[in-house]
Amino acid sequence: MTTQANSATTELCLCGRSLGFETCCQPIHRSGAGLGITAEALMRARYSAYVIGNEQFLIDSWHPDTRPAAIDFTPGIRWTGLTVIDTVDGGGLDSEGTVEFVAQFATADGPNQLHEVSSFVRQGGNWVYVDGKNGSSVKPDNQNRKVL
Ligand SMILES: [Zn+2]
Which residues of the chain have pLDDT under 50? Predict the structure, then answer.
């Protein structure tokens, strides 16, 4: 048994995955429009983009029908963690999917969290974000979710 330690550190990506930013979300950011392989990967990359203020990526990965003219980065907000709770479809063979998550953040008022169910569709091979609804209105034990 060797004690050889290669460079595989347990550095976390901004989105919380143990891949490191360079191999997790950064390649998706650099691909321009959402080259996330899955809806969850794109959702994580969008969270990371909020953390670092990557407005162009957020706009590029937003559906043209619903995207804002500019991203409203709340001043003084600090994103502190992401937990993906559930995903429905959004895989390699799907054309739409949803990702439910809780994003922790802190402001001058203290820690808080955003609970959202985000909807994604695939457009020209790339996943794009359509919209989100408040996750707190979604009962965790309700398996029969309303389809938008
Ligand atoms: Zn990531």
Answer: 2-6, 137-148
Quick check: helix, strand or coil at residue 66?
A: coil
Distance 27 CA to ligand 1 centre (A): 9
Question: What is the Cα–Cα distance from 3 to 9, expressed in whole angstroms?
Answer: 14
Q: What six digits make up the tokens of 63?
A: 């559906």
Q: Which domains does the chain have, with CATH numbers?
A: 26-137 (3.10.450.50)
Taking Cα atoms as reference points, which of 25, 80, 79, 89 lies closest to residue 57?
Answer: 25
Cα(2) to centroid(ligand 1), Å: 30
What residue type is assigned to position 44 of the chain? Answer: R
pTM of the predicted model over 0.85: no
| Separation of CA 105 and ligand 1 centre (Å) | 17
CA-to-CA dists, residue 120 to 87, 98, 139, angstroms: 11, 6, 20
Q: Give the DSSP letter of residue 11.
A: P
* Order of strands across the sheet that contains 78-89: 78-89, 96-107, 110-123, 126-134
Kindly list the distances between the CA atom of residue 43 and the CA atoms of 21, 39, 67, 83, 142, in Å, as whole numbers in the listed order. 14, 6, 15, 11, 23
